[in-house]
Specification:
The protein has 355 residues and is α+β, with helices and mostly antiparallel strands. The protein is 47% helix and 25% strand. The protein folds into two domains: 4-164, GAF domain (Beta-Lactamase, 2-Layer Sandwich); 175-341, Alpha-Beta Plaits. Helix 1 packs antiparallel against helix 2, helix 7 (220-227) crosses helix 8 (229-246) and helix 8 packs across helix 9. It starts with a helix and ends in a 14-residue tail after the last helix. Mean pLDDT is 85; it is low at 1-8, 196-206 and 351-355. GO terms for molecular function: diguanylate cyclase activity. This is Putative diguanylate cyclase AdrA. Its EC number is 2.7.7.65. Pfam families: GGDEF.
């Protein structure tokens, strides 16, 4: 005999899966996963943990649904937030994650009257994350089968979407992904500015400032002309790996086109930002590239000001890059400093009305 509850919920699940696979933003797909599985399992809170390349937790998404009743009308308050995982992951959760990793299957832990239940999430046959929730009973075989089915659809679609947003040669995020992430970052910065003004508070353990840098391989055309495009491609791949190793896991690196890269880093002040970009420049300068020998990069960077359009911030970083090229290459300049020195003239630009 069929389960009425499962049968009646199946069309809803299929509809949610259809909605999830219509999304073109990987971050929103992760949110959609939580919004799909929470109601299915009858829980108001779910969590998603995305792993970094080293198996550590890169970020966590928390989804909560709260039922409010006002003047006899019930409504559901739906909220998703990304939190700093350093303080939010408990010892119980770490132990549960480790059990899931070692066994390669879902596990649960009894905590008081509740069960903490965790499922592994795989991508390209590798563990890429965890799905976690709490409730007062174990998952039924039917629920377990549906959860596995939803997770499989999610991972297959996420991998497909992620591939479409990456450069085929270097594996870096591409220009299309940059546009999506810039919109998200600017929304985050604008919301944080409002929060700081209205509440006179700041979030704990979150950076105050982001910086956008445009980096370019010096004399790359000469490398292609002298050694051929195969060697040129190898240089691009090696520069990518060196940049990735010099930046932190939380920083974002994109191939902007040709031999140009864009890096978005978090740093609380200008000195910290200068150190981060200099670390990348020096690492490449000191590396001995096969056949070619030593090469260098030049760059320019600017503060990611939420009151200025993202494209204008890119233009500011780009103009600083050209100033670095004119000054002799193998250096990275800050836009604001160049304006103060009179090297660049600040021009009126499109802005975002925050108030």
């Amino acid at each position: 005999m069929s389960n009425p509850r499962t049968d009646s919920g199946l069309p809803s699940v299929l509809k949610k899966l259809g909605a999830m696979t219509a999304i073109r933003d990987t971050y929103l797909v992760e949110q959609s996963l939580l919004r799909t599985l929470g109601p299915l399992l009858g829980v108001l809170e779910t969590s998603f943990y995305r792993l970094d390349d080293n198996g550590g937790i890169a970020r966590a998404l928390y989804h909560s649904r709260k039922v409010e009743q006002k003047e006899g009308v019930k409504r559901i308050i739906d909220n998703i937030e990304e939190v700093a995982v350093g303080q939010e992951v408990t010892d119980t959760e770490r132990n549960l994650f480790e059990s899931v990793r070692l066994l390669g299957k879902s596990c649960s832990r009894k905590v008081g009257s509740d069960l903490h239940i965790c499922y592994p999430i795989y991508g390209n046959s590798e563990l890429v994350g965890y799905f976690l929730f709490q409730r007062d009973r174990e998952v039924t075989p039917v629920e377990d089968a549906i959860v596995h089915g939803v997770l499989e659809v999610f991972t297959n679609y996420f991998d497909l979407l992620d591939t479409s947003q990456r450069d085929q040669l270097t594996g870096l995020l591409n220009r299309y992904s940059l546009e999506i992430n810039l919109d998200r970052l600017w929304n985050l910065l604008s919301a944080r500015l409002h929060e700081s003004i209205e509440e006179n508070t700041k979030r704990i353990n979150t950076p105050d400032t982001y910086w956008l840098g445009v980096l370019d391989i010096d004399h790359f055309k000469n490398i292609n002309d002298t050694y051929g495009h195969v060697i040129g491609d190898e240089i691009l791949i090696m520069v990518t790996r060196l940049l990735q190793s010099s930046l932190r896991q939380s920083d974002l690196l994109y191939r902007y086109g040709g031999e140009e890269f864009i890096a978005i880093i978090a740093a609380n002040d200008l000195d910290s930002a200068i150190q981060a970009f200099e670390r990348a420049r020096v690492k490449i300068e000191q590396f001995q590239f096969p056949q070619v020998g030593h090469i260098t990069i030049s760059g320019g960077f600017s503060n990611a000001d939420p009151g200025v359009l993202p494209q204008e911030v890119i233009n500011r970083a780009d103009s600083s890059l050209y100033a670095a090229k004119d000054a002799g290459r193998n250096r990275i300049f800050h836009y604001g400093t160049l304006v103060k020195q009179g090297v660049l003239k600040e021009t009126p630009s499109g802005s975002i009305d925050l108030f």
